[in-house]
Amino acid sequence: MSLLLKKKIAKQFNQAVATYDRHALVQRKMAEQLVKLLPRSEEKLRILEIGCGTGIFTHLLVQAFSNSTIVAVDIAEEMVNKARSLLNQAKNIQFVVGDIEALDLSKFAPFDFIVSNATIQWFQDKPKTIQKLSRVLSPNGWMITSTFGPQTFRELSDVFRRKEEELGFPSTLHHLPLLALDDWKQIWKQAGLENVDGIEQFHRLEYPDCYTFLKAVKAVGASYSENRLRLSQSRKLLGQVMRMYDQIYQVANGVYATYHILYVTGQKE
């Protein structure tokens, strides 16, 4: 993932700030599950949150760890502004706009918890970044995250593959490359973390049609495609994909899409 692509991603999330909370149904469920995985403590902890977005998970952290200090980081400035506005009464949060892969964390470290909801899939160099984060964990500190697995939007991938083959277009990835749970666990272990564990879940959301589904993905800033077709070809492909999707992935109230959810945990000895 190039610097140019990172800037594009930040722009997408900035543009999604007004629509994110309304459409982030799965991300909200993930946040609620993630906070339950954090070991409870009455101590004054230092918590690093990566990808705070509009503050959905940050708010849960403030409620669960009211005595703790939270450093909340996000690459999208408008998202951070929204989170800051939501949590303006909280005195124990420091918001930082920046790319966690490039940020100097030494001035904030060490951390008792490093947490992230639905963000680590965007890391450019995943092993290197997890190693970097492991270094700023306190002894016995925890890294606990949620992310999306490779079977996310498997229905959409299936339809794109079929239509690209039918139309003679090159096969292209139409969602972010996503790692399996075992891959993430291996990265955790290579970073020196112990007690590495994971949870795998599938959630199925329903939408009136494929167009509404794709619009909802865009509304949370998560659109991604490596499509290099001409505009006319892209429009033709997308139109046929939406029609086929509506036909073969029907439910009573429209269509469905699968979200493959992963939770990864590890502790620094």
UniProtKB/TrEMBL annotation:
Residues 42-161 form the Methyltransferase domain. Its EC number is 2.1.1.197. One of its GO terms (biological process) is biotin biosynthetic process. It catalyses: malonyl-[ACP] + S-adenosyl-L-methionine = malonyl-[ACP] methyl ester + S-adenosyl-L-homocysteine. One of its GO terms (molecular function) is carboxyl-O-methyltransferase activity. Converts the free carboxyl group of a malonyl-thioester to its methyl ester by transfer of a methyl group from S-adenosyl-L-methionine (SAM). It allows to synthesize pimeloyl-ACP via the fatty acid synthetic pathway. Belongs to the methyltransferase superfamily. This is Malonyl-[acyl-carrier protein] O-methyltransferase. It comes from Thermoflavimicrobium dichotomicum. The lineage of its organism: Bacteria, Bacillati, Bacillota, Bacilli, Bacillales. The gene is bioC.
